[in-house]
Automatic annotation (TrEMBL):
One of its GO terms (molecular function) is DNA-binding transcription factor activity. The keyword Transcription applies. Residues 24-100 form the HTH rpiR-type domain. This is Putative HTH-type transcriptional regulator YbbH. It comes from Variibacter gotjawalensis. It comes from the Bacteria.
Length: 302
């Protein structure tokens, strides 16, 4: 029997040109392919090359607007470089620009002692809470409360680092008597979202607002007739076009990391405020349910 050998896949021009240097930077790869790009892609590439330090702060929506292109064109260019999407390119840019220690936290230094780490981390968290309190719109929070109170059921979505926040929000909603379920698997999210309707409220947690799975699930839920609420970081992002209400966090740590530590503190603070406001709006039911569930939970303690 004659063995057949698979032909190696042809490398992209960027990969061929930079083969001797496996660790070529994102900007170097973009500069190699830039002369042969169509106009829209060339504008995106030029913007990223010229404003790399700014791009690590930005969402795919913001880059598309600055380059006068579509979000799809930005993602397509990222995939042409071998990335899964824009977030992976942001990580690559950050690696080109910063010291490795800053991926742990941008404020820490490699030789910091424990007391210094404690002070820096706590101050970072405090700053995120103060900034979030300033950008959180009370009218938007009240609108989110009205949507939840009017709904027959609530679904909470989150993936990755947002999943624990979604789990906490669901637990807190159940404790005050709101019919709620949490979905953190992306496939189940899509199915569940498509089966919602006008009597369902959807709460999505997405720090970047660009995570494909949660953007898709939020879009499907809204198309099915559900009212949608999103907790996301301040700035323009794709998920906002599918949200009836946006509750903004302001976590600055996202400069170098896609899974920010301080963002979770800010997200939890918004969840706390939202649950408290919903409990006040459904006071009698909430107090009764809290008392009943507290009694049940007491049976689990020795």
């Amino acid at each position: 029997m004659t063995k057949t050998t698979k032909k190696p896949q042809a490398k992209s021009k960027a990969a061929r040109a930079l083969a001797p240097r496996e660790q070529a930077s994102v900007r170097e790869r973009l500069q190699v392919i830039l002369p042969n790009l169509p106009p829209a892609a060339a504008r995106i590439a030029r913007f990223i090359v010229d404003h790399a330090a700014d791009v690590v702060h930005m969402s795919v929506t913001e880059v598309a607007e600055k380059a006068e292109a579509s979000e799809g064109s930005v993602v397509a260019l990222c995939q042409q470089l071998g990335a899964r999407g824009f977030q992976q390119i942001k990580i690559g840019l950050a690696r080109d620009l910063v010291q490795p220690v800053q991926f742990i936290h941008e404020d820490v230094a490699r030789n910091d002692r424990a007391d210094t780490v404690i002070e820096k981390m706590f101050r970072s968290g405090i700053l995120a809470l103060e900034d979030t309190m300033r950008v959180l719109d009370p009218a938007a929070l009240q609108k989110a409360v009205d949507i939840i109170v009017a709904a027959r059921s609530v679904e909470v979505y989150g993936v990755g680092s947002a999943a624990p926040i979604a789990e906490d929000a669901n637990y807190r909603l159940l404790r005050i008597g709101i019919a709620s379920k949490v979905v953190t698997d992306s496939h189940v999210q899509a199915i569940s979202a498509s089966l919602t309707g006008k009597h369902t409220a959807v709460l999505t947690v997405s720090h970047s607002g660009s995570t494909h799975e949660t953007v898709t699930s939020t879009r499907l839920a809204r198309e099915a007739g559900a009212r949608t609420i999103c907790i996301t970081n301040y700035g323009k992002s794709p998920i906002q076009s599918h949200a009836d209400v946006v509750l903004y966090t302001m976590a600055r740590e996202t400069r170098f990391r896609t899974e920010a530590m301080t963002s979770r503190i800010a997200q939890l603070a918004i969840v706390d405020a939202l649950i408290a406001a919903v409990a006040l709006a459904t006071y009698d039911k909430a107090v009764t349910t809290i008392a009943r569930t507290s009694e049940i939970l007491s049976l689990k303690r020795i």
